[in-house]
Write a structure and sequence with these properties.
This protein has no helices and eleven strands. The chain has strands at residues 3-7, 10-13, 18-25, 33-39, 46-51, 58-60, 68-73, 78-83, 92-99, 115-116, 120-125. β4 and β5 (46-51) form a beta hairpin. 33% of the residues are buried.
């Protein structure tokens, strides 16, 4: 069983930066592709970023391109999301998720990810 715990959210001002962390436990972390998603009330979950198990492949949704960077430290069983130049539209609950083999992976599709954290709230104030 894989458990994911997000941290690092908070209340920031427009233009600020935040780094979210997602600590994983259970199983072999380096075997899992990891993703970040976000959601606001009444809207569907939105893909933000994805990273392969080795960290060699990274993908971004439209919301994350150019301002967000996903990374991982397999020695620490942790994946990160560095968010820069934050905007009010980035306000959301942010979730990390793990794709565990042999589940088929379709990058950015929430059904591809087996395990989810409980989320961390990011609020960007203008």
């Amino acid at each position: 069983q894989v458990q994911l715990v997000e941290s690092g959210g908070g209340l920031v001002q427009v233009g600020d930066s935040l780094r979210l962390s997602c600590a994983a436990s259970g199983g072999s972390f380096r075997d899992y592709a990891m993703g970040w998603f976000r959601q606001t009330p009444g809207k569907e979950r939105e893909f933000v970023a994805h990273i392969s198990g080795s960290g060699g492949n990274r993908y971004y949704g439209d919301s994350g391109k150019g301002r967000f960077t996903i990374s991982r430290d397999n020695a620490k069983n942790t994946v990160y999301l560095q968010m820069n130049s934050l905007k009010p539209g980035d306000t959301a609950e942010y979730y990390c998720a793990a794709n565990v083999p042999p589940r088929t992976l379709v990058v950015g599709r929430s059904y591809s990810y087996d395990y989810w954290g409980r989320g961390t709230q990011v609020t960007v104030s203008s």
